[in-house]
Amino acid sequence: MLFGVFLVFYTPEYGTIVMGANEELDDLLPSTIQEMIVHQIVIKIVHGKRAVYDVFSSQINNSIVGKKNIEICLGKGLSPDEIVAGSIFYYIHQDDDK
Q1: Residues 6+ apart with CB under 8 A from 51
Q2: 8-state DSSP, 48
Q3: Residues 90/41, Cβ–Cβ less than 8 Å
Q4: I need a surface site. Which of 35, 73, 79, 97 has the fewest CB within 10 A?
Q5: How many CB atoms within 10 Å of residue 11?
Q6: What is the pLDDT of residues 66-92, one digit of tens each?
Q7: Closest CA to 34 of 6, 62, 3, 58
Q8: CB 74 within 8 Å of CB 17
């Protein structure tokens, strides 16, 4: 698991952006987390549906309390209504990507 989604929004410039966190990643360097996010991710929507989406860009930020917040841009081709808070993002192992 990469993270649970707590915020989904749309910007005209970047499209749909999801934000989330995972306590298990808080001790990792942002660059290590970034390496886990390849060009695609799997999302398990709250309703049980799974889908694979392209990652256009990602960013890892430290919150004021030392937690890692992960932001992933999924682009303009995806409506933010397709992903709801509580959905789970999984990274695709690079070995799985071949």
Answers
A1: 42, 43, 45
A2: S
A3: yes
A4: 97
A5: 11
A6: 899 999 999 999 999 988 889 999 988
A7: 58
A8: yes
